[in-house]
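ugh ok so i messed up the first submission bc i forgot one of the chains. this is the corrected input, ALL of the components this time, i swear. 615 residues overall. if the numbers dont match what u have on ur side tell me asap before i send this to the collaborators (the ones from the other lab, u know who)
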Amino acid sequence: MEMLIKIAHNYYYMVAILLFVIGMHTMLTHSNLIKKVIAMNIMDTSVFLMFVATGYTYGGAAPIVTAPANEVLYVNPLPGSLMLTGIVVAVSITAYALSLVVKIYRYYGTVDYDEICLIRSRE
Amino acid sequence: MELTNHFPALILAILLGISFLSPILYRWARKASAPALIASLFLALVMAVYLLVQVLQVGEFTYYMGGWPPPWGIEFKVNLLRVYMLLIVLAVSLWIMVYALKDLEHELKTEVMGWYYTLYALVVGSMAGMALTNDLFNLFVLMEICAISACAIISIKEDRACLEASFKYLILSAMGTGCFLLGVAMIYMVTGQMNYDLVNAALPEAVELYPNNMFAAAALFIVAFGTKAALFPLHVWLPDAHASAPSPSSAMLSGLVIKIYAFALFIMFYQLFPRSLLESIPLNEIVLWLSSMGIMFGSIFAMVQVDLKKMLAYSSIGQIGYVFLGIGLDDIIAMTGGFYHLLVHAIMKSMLFMCAGIIIYTTGIRQIKQLGGIGQVLPITMIAFTIGSASMIGIPGTGGLISKWYLALGALEIGRPIFVVIILASSLLNAVYYMPIIVNAFMQQEQFQHQVKPVPRKMLIPLIVGMAAIIFFGVFSRPAIVLLDEALALFF
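and heres the new structure output, hopefully the right one now
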């Protein structure tokens, strides 16, 4: 019961982990290559969500400090800025993966991995 | 403001810089592009040697990127073990590049050569960064650079097998980095730090308060680095990727890229995690058994292969197992053996892939069966292959023996002789799949059937250097072992 209350209190972590598992499962089990790429993005995004959530403090203000430092609680800006880098990395991986899918499609005329295996086994 | 103080950052800057210059040079001054890459790799190597001298004189030191000390800035740490890794990465990549100059001409289209140099410099640069960095997020970024460019040096060949293999590699690598970043999030959540040393200082308290977070982080790290370094059940991407790539890329990927992740896992275990965490969950034990399984199954799969490069790729799965075995045994002598194997295997596997590359270049043969009698037409190549295989098996006089010797000694030291049996059994298995090739190549009476192009001298010189290096590290192992002993003493 105590565990459940903790989870309910930190539901955003739960959502992030759920998305991560969905992404990972789809990425590894689906045979459609485009879906694999989409799932990879879901997985990455879930990690970003998790990271940004760690920076949040209840009732925190945006971390813009004005000249006389007023005693307000601030949100931690570091995870957000780190995740900007993470997003850039995820975008470049997605672009590269999609370009590979295009090339594979040119060879086989399909983006389904099972069909590709079939075509290869027939040769 | 002396220049030599900035060497840790300059090594990276030079390699990343040349990666941007290569396509431009290739477009406007085609003749200068390959020498420029080799010159910058050499310059980086010289800097690394200087760092080694400096470390030997003053001991461990750190470098702050942009002058910002942690926790604000990124920190590079230079100690003996990291310099050892850096030297391996730079020296072996320089050596492979010399071989690649000739080999790439027939494997790639001429217009993409400039881009190949770019990717090559990126792979080397990111690995050099991974060897030095002392910051979790920096490690993540470098891992991603390495992953993308490592996939790209496979897919640049653009035939069907390469594209599929690199897509598979990319997906599994993305899973690896995803797991790593989630692990970093778990650690950041409880410590609020990214720098290894600060995390390490904050962790003992955090483990007490939030043990579940740390268990999750440890598991995620094993999956992340295990996938990237082809630890046994997560190795599925490796055979296709390493076998279908152009030969210099195969040498690079098998020789260096999988090793750097094993090194990163070592740093996570022994520098980032506090000793209490390693003792409370059997992390070493997990790595130990997975690596033992990898050693056995890698060799067993290699036996049934018909394609030469695929056999070498499966053999890599077995051999990376030795490095993990060193980490898993959790003993300084075994660890010395593991890290010595990292050096020796980087040389011998690269050399074997070069031999395979030469065989494909001169005859176009990839099947093991058709290699009978090839020793008469390609004598130097097959002698190099023999020495490389001898080192894989662990025949005295070659580097492979020394690392297995220390691993076995370490296993006996902590009283687990079962791992000595595993090491011996896998040596036998190695002999089972390497020896027939050599015996067939030299002993077969009938003439070699296929047409043979003459071997270019540019390809033979790296082979001779490789043979000399393997024998050198087999006979004069003392300096490297002493250095490793001193380097690893910092972590125990």
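quick check: Chain B touches chain A through 26 residues (CB under 8 Å). that seems consistent at least. Strands of chain B lie at 61-64, 75-78.
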